Amino acid sequence: MRDQPSGANLLRQARAVLLEDLLGALPEGKRYEALMVANAMAIVARELEAGEGRAEERAALENLLGAADEADETAALKALVQRLAREIRTGRHDGSAVLHALLSRDAARRLAVSNPKRLDR
Amino acid sequence: MSVTPAERRLAESKPALQAFLAQAAGAGGASLDDARPLSGGAIQENWLIDVSFAGGPMAGRQELVLRSDAHSGVAVSLSRSQEFRLLCAARAAGVTVPEPLWLCADQSVLGRPFYVMRRVAGTAVGRHIVKDGGPGGDKTALAQRLGEELAKIHKITPPNRDLDFLEMPDGSPALSAIGHYRAHLDALGQARPALEWALRWCELNAPPAGELVLVHQDFRTGNYMVDERGLTGVLDWEFCAWGEPMSDLGWFCAKCWRFGRDDREAGGIAPREPFYQGYERVSDRQVDPGAVAYWEVMAHLRWAVIALQQGERHISGGEPSLELALTGRRVAELEHELLGMTGPARWREA
């Protein structure tokens, strides 16, 4: 068990201080950098809350490509993604609706972390 | 204020720089009154310099820009001396650019080559320009004007002895670019299925090789200067090559360069029509909307590869930078767009 408040909670509060208290006191030339810092903090907070979802990702990939040989989860996932990239390049999945749906889900999951505002566009 | 390494280097070079400027301007002397670094150049160093010339045709105080290679040069872009020749060619073709003044290839002055141009007024900051009431004057007129400027750039065609350093695509510019992007992904060691999906679509749908013209390859909002009335200069010539004219229109209109104003399809500033009209007013060729749409997919791919490379510069530890790090994280957004543009239905049309 980790102590409370959670890491994500701490980051969100720190970000609120940055945006609500500090930003206005910064010179105009430093505003953009402060906003970049706030953006990075928001990404990390969302990432901490989302988790990695590796088991689901691996299951979806194995469903499409067959089982990975690697025992280690990280190595298996890496090998599956590499195999998929290679196969797409050589034309083995041209126009596949199943693959397109899988890739779209994966991109949406990562976008929900990095920039959720772009999701609904 | 702390002094950055770049500022220290410039200060150390001040006497040599003043001597060069005086000689280049045919002046009795030159005094560097002020030098301020311009942010935003990941590949070059840009300085706003105020120089007082004693005598000669430039006598008096001049507001100039000095542009040099960055200390950590990125090999993919053109050198400053090549860029200087491009600026001269563009100016001769009637393109609105900051007037190029002097090139210094002698490395003993600043430690690396640089050139000096006249400063143009205004701002290039994309997120300000796309705002309602933001700088740039009437945005419909600005889009038209930018179409005209692009058509002027495209009137420069190979062979051209002054521009003999520019890369010539190996066969179809589209297929040649796809090969480059795949090689970059492999070099980064990045397996990116979503990018591979879009690359494969682009490979199957590549337009046949057509006429070759000078393509700017970074002609977009954020890379031109405007003041309150309109355009003051087209910037950032370091990615020029010989290529397909429609590729520049696709880069300009691509959703990833609208700075959040997705409804204004011409660079976040206006609808496409005035931009296309301006282009066709100056060019002998018609805009091919289908080809532009293809190059918009390619634009997202190109930007995704660049974003991965910029992220890697941070990740590798070579150049720790929050901006580079955040750019690396923009790839998900580009992949999301790419998948939206290349759904299964669009493969059946091929």
Overall description:
Chain A has 121 residues and is mainly alpha-helical. Chain A has helices at 7-22, 31-50, 54-65, 73-89, 97-114. In chain A, helix 1 runs antiparallel to helix 2 and helix 3 crosses helix 4 (73-89). The longest helix of chain A has 20 residues, at 31-50. Chain A starts with 6 loop residues before the first helix and ends in a 7-residue tail after the last helix. The relative contact order of chain A is 0.09. Chain B has 350 residues and is α+β, with helices and mostly antiparallel strands. Chain B folds into 2 domains: 5-118, Phosphorylase Kinase, domain 1 (2-Layer Sandwich), CATH 3.30.200.20; 126-349, Aminoglycoside 3'-phosphotransferase, Chain: A, domain 2 (Alpha-Beta Complex). In chain B, the strands form 3 sheets. Chain B has a 5-stranded antiparallel β-sheet, with helices on both faces. Chain B has a two-stranded antiparallel sheet with strand order 6-9. In chain B, helix 6 (139-153) packs parallel to helix 10, helix 11 packs across helix 12 and helix 11 (289-315) packs antiparallel against helix 13. In chain B, 46% of the residues are buried. The A-B interface holds A 33, 36-37, 39-40, 43, 78, 81-82, 84-86, 88-89, 91, 93-97, 99-100, 103-104, 106-108, 110-111, 113-115, 118-119, 121 and B 182, 191-194, 196-197, 199-200, 204, 262, 322-323, 325-326, 329-330, 332-333, 335-336, 339-340, 343-344, 347-348.
Give the helices and strands, then pairings.
The complex is a heterodimer of chains A (121) and B (350).
Chain A lengths: L6 H16 L8 H20 L3 H12 L7 H17 L7 H18 L7
Helix pairs in contact in A: 1-2, 3-4
Chain B lengths: L4 H8 L1 H11 L4 E10 L5 E11 L5 E10 L10 H13 L7 E5 L2 H4 L3 E5 L7 H4 L9 H15 L19 H16 L4 H12 L8 E3 L8 E3 L4 E4 L6 E3 L1 H9 L18 H11 L6 H27 L6 H7 L2 H11 L2 H5 L2
Antiparallel strand pairs in B: 1-2, 2-3, 3-5, 4-5, 6-9, 7-8
